[in-house]
Task: inverse folding
């Protein structure tokens, strides 16, 4: 029996893909409407995360934050899950917490994989997610088939516990930091008197960095510059992970320090707040007095 806790934007697609793959699926979510939709599609409803964990051989979690994931695994799954089962965290979770949960569950003879995903709602619904797997190799091997339903050939074993989270960070930073650099480049040009459309035509192109510059400058020219979240919502996770690994992360550190001064009026694809970098760089947004945040 496969279990899935969390039926939000990603989880609902994951449920559909697992059902389509022929798996008997038990689900749980605090939102009754989401739960009903999954049941209508063929899933079995559990009354709690604890009940689900007690009755499933593989328990997937797809939850909105590291804090929620850790709390659910520690207080509801760990006390209930049976020895020999496997818990798979599909979300982005702090590295030190991931390793701690691995030790906790292993002490109870339960496997634990950190397997964060990339590919959005579309990838979840079509089974084409990138999945970065960390944990004991033997546990990964016995879970590989069901993970393959969610990711197909985009499934990679990255190493021991925490390696999946580190690889997910690389994935996010490779997108976010590069996008931020192009946004700053365009803002520099606009501040000097050259409009975004002209910059797109002059610097953009069909391949390499010119293709990405063309796309970003085009979005800015179309008035959609503030819609690029540059993966800001996860920066604090990655800065915390960098401390654990002893890595300095100078570009990430400085970009985060700059952006957190501005109001978080944007919402990313998971409805997480972020301060639009384009408005911050061009003066359309003004720094706020309160720069505290808590994304864990």
Result:
């Amino acid at each position: 029996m496969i279990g899935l806790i969390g039926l939000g934007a990603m989880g609902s697609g994951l449920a559909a893909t697992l059902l389509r793959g022929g798996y008997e699926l038990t689900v749980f979510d605090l939102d009754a409407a989401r739960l009903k939709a999954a049941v209508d599609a063929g899933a079995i409803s559990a009354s709690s995360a604890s009940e689900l964990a007690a009755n499933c051989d593989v328990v997937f979690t797809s939850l909105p934050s590291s804090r929620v994931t850790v709390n659910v695994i520690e207080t509801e799954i760990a006390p209930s899950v049976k020895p020999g089962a496997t818990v798979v965290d599909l979300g982005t979770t702090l590295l030190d917490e991931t390793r701690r949960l691995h030790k906790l569950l292993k002490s109870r003879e339960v496997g634990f994989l950190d397997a964060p995903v990339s590919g959005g709602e579309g990838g979840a619904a079509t089974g084409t997610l990138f999945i970065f797997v960390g944990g004991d190799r033997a546990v990964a091997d016995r879970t590989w088939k069901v993970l393959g339903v969610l990711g197909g050939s985009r499934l990679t074993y990255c190493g021991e516990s925490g390696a999946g989270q580190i690889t997910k960070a690389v994935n996010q930073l490779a997108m976010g930091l590069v996008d931020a650099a192009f946004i700053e480049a365009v803002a520099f040009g606009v501040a000097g008197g050259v409009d975004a459309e002209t910059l797109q035509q002059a610097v953009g192109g069909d391949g390499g960095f010119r293709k990405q510059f063309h796309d970003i400058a085009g979005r800015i020219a179309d008035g959609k510059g503030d819609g690029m979240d540059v993966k800001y919502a996860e920066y604090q996770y990655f800065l915390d992970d960098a401390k654990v690994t002893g890595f300095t992360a100078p570009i990430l550190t400085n970009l985060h320090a700059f952006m957190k001064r501005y109001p978080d009026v944007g919402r990313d694809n998971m409805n997480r707040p972020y301060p639009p970098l384009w408005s911050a760089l061009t003066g359309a947004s003004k720094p706020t007095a309160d720069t505290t945040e808590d994304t864990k």
Residues 167-282 form a domain with the N-(1-d-carboxylethyl)-l-norvaline Dehydrogenase; domain 2 fold (CATH 1.10.1040). The longest helix spans residues 163-191. The mean pLDDT is 96.
